[in-house]
């Protein structure tokens, strides 16, 4: 199969680490730009709207991720199936997989938009959102979910391109939308005085532009039979089943983790507005730390899927360890920078002494442990690329959801009003998850199943 206008990356050939780097750097930059315009939202709100507005945006973060994370799990299922088709050079099946994926995407857009708009107030109530924050948080969420389709379409379209090894154009589109978001933030908030509504409107307009750009590319892929042509819309039931069987466990995992985080936010909301805002600042910075690990996890998933599709199991496994090493190295460097300059980093969001104090507290308590997420991201990505997504789902749910909720339920009674204890639920979850997912990757037998599968194909 030819490269997509020279941009796709065939990860089944060549030295392993350069292939992973060439794939993951554009992916990392794309995620960075996507996070950047969310960060700009918080900076503009904190500096030009007020403390309660910053707390409102911060308290909605996990609610926004609830539906977005569910959908991103489905996109990972599609990416794994498409990557395997690409690695096997099965053009006809690749065409049907892209068609089926886009049909499922439009259905999901309609369903998740309705759920988000109708359910956001209920979720705010369940997290005990303070009265001085509730109205602005509700307004932000209603606008955000009304324009959710743009983000979902971009995420799935870019997942398809990344499955083909093309990470450059999704990155370019995010760069464009990020610049647009910053400009619209300043116009809507400073010039028009729309406050938190202006920030939400800027976000959904920028996301809509990125969706249009990525859909335009999908309609013009030059590979024979590969392009997504509207008049040829079809749904392959077998492929849809494969996409859902891989993606649904990831989607459920991500949604439940986000749902659990919504209720962890409720424990934070029990403290004052400055603590809520400080937590919001820390979580924004923490997301930057997670980016290299997430990008390398996606690179590992695509690398494994393409190489298994090409029948190269040993190469797939070598790629996993290369990805893990690079993930740890970059994440450790990022953590060191954040821990070295916590005060000026938090001050970017707001110049309030109490809020800065809380933000620095959370950074010093949690950030040193965050690099352990490399284990979960890379090993989980590898197993998803192999089609074994249920094991990462179970491990993540047990460690990030059930353990954290049980820990918080106990610690909030044993040490009531102790903010340190509440925040430490995150590091403990990372530690336990890292240990368990490492054991599962080593002993679950996913590689043995593929070796047997490839042996049967070889004999055939």
Summarize the structure.
The protein has 460 residues and is mainly alpha-helical. The protein contains 17 helices and no strands.
Task: Note down, in words, how this protein is organized.
The chain is mostly helical and 460 residues long. The protein has one domain. Helices cover 82% and strands 0% of the residues. It has 17 helices and no strands. The chain has helices at residues 16-48, 51-87, 91-126, 131-146, 148-163, 168-191, 196-218, 237-269, 273-309, 313-340, 342-347, 353-366, 373-385, 390-414, 419-423, 425-443, 446-459. The longest helix is centred in the first third of the chain and has 37 residues, at 51-87. The chain is globular, with a radius of gyration of 22 Å. Mean pLDDT is 84; it is low at 1-6 and 224-229.
What is the percentage of strand-forming residues? Answer: under 5%
Shape from CA axes? globular
Number of strands: 0
Rounded to the nearest angstrom, the distance between the terminal CA atoms is 23 Å
Q: What class do helices, strands and sheet pairing give? A: mainly alpha
Provide a count of the helices: 17
Low-confidence stretches: 1-6, 224-229
In N-to-C order, the SSE pattern is HHHHHHHHHHHHHHHHH
Quaternary state reads single chain
Q: How much helicity do the residues have?
A: over 70%
Radius of gyration: 22 Å
Sheet with most strands? none
> What is the mean pLDDT?
84
What number of domains? 1
Quickly list its features.
about 450 residues, mainly alpha, disordered N terminus
SSE blueprint:
Layout: H1 16-48, H2 51-87, H3 91-126, H4 131-146, H5 148-163, H6 168-191, H7 196-218, H8 237-269, H9 273-309, H10 313-340, H11 342-347, H12 353-366, H13 373-385, H14 390-414, H15 419-423, H16 425-443, H17 446-459
Helix pairs in contact: 1-2, 1-6, 1-7, 1-9, 2-3, 2-4, 2-5, 2-8, 2-9, 3-4, 3-5, 3-8, 4-7, 5-7, 6-7, 8-14, 9-10, 9-12, 9-13, 10-13, 13-14, 13-16, 14-16
């Amino acid at each position: 199969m030819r490269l997509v206008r020279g941009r796709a990356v065939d990860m089944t050939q060549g030295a392993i680490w350069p292939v992973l780097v060439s794939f993951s750097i554009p992916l990392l930059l794309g995620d960075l730009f996507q996070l950047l315009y969310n960060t700009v939202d918080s900076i503009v709100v904190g500096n030009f709207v007020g403390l309660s507005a910053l707390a409102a945006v911060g308290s909605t973060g996990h609610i926004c991720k609830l539906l977005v994370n569910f959908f991103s799990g489905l996109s990972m299922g599609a990416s794994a199936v498409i990557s395997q088709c690409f690695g096997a050079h099965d053009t006809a099946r690749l065409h049907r997989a892209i068609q089926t994926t886009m049909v499922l995407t439009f259905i999901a857009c309609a369903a998740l938009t309705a759920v988000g708009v109708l359910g956001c107030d209920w979720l705010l109530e369940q997290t005990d959102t303070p009265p001085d924050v509730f109205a602005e948080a509700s307004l932000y969420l209603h606008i955000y979910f009304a324009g959710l389709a743009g983000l979902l379409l971009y995420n799935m379209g870019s997942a398809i391109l990344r499955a083909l090894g093309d990470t450059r154009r999704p990155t370019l589109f995010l760069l464009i939308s990020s610049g647009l978001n910053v400009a619209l933030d300043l116009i809507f908030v400073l010039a028009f005085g729309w406050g938190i509504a202006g920030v939400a409107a800027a976000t959904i307009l920028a996301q809509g532009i990125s969706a249009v750009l990525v859909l335009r590319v999908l309609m013009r892929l030059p590979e024979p039979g590969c392009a997504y042509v509207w008049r040829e819309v079809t749904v392959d039931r077998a492929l849809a089943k494969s996409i859902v069987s891989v993606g649904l466990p990831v989607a459920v995992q991500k949604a439940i983790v986000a749902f659990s985080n919504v209720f962890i936010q409720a424990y934070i909301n029990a403290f004052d507005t400055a603590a809520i805002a400080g937590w919001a600042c820390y979580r924004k910075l923490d997301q930057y730390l997670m980016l290299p690990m997430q990008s390398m996890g996606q690179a590992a998933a695509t690398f494994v899927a393409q190489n298994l599709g090409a029948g190269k199991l040993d190469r797939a496994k070598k790629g996993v360890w290369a990805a893990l090493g690079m993930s740890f190295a970059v994440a450790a460097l990022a953590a060191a920078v954040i821990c070295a300059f916590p005060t000026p980093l938090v001050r970017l969001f707001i110049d309030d002494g109490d809020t800065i104090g809380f933000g620095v507290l959370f950074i010093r308590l949690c950030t040193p442990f965050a690099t352990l997420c490399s284990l979960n991201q890379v090993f989980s990505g590898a197993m998803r690329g192999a089609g074994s997504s249920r094991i990462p789902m179970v491990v993540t749910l047990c460690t990030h959801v059930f353990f954290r909720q049980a820990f918080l339920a106990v610690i909030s009674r044993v040490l009531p009003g102790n903010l340190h204890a509440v925040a430490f639920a995150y590091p403990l979850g990372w530690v336990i998850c890292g240990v368990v997912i490492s054991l599962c990757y080593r002993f679950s037998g996913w590689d043995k199943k593929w070796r047997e599968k490839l042996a049967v194909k070889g004999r055939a």
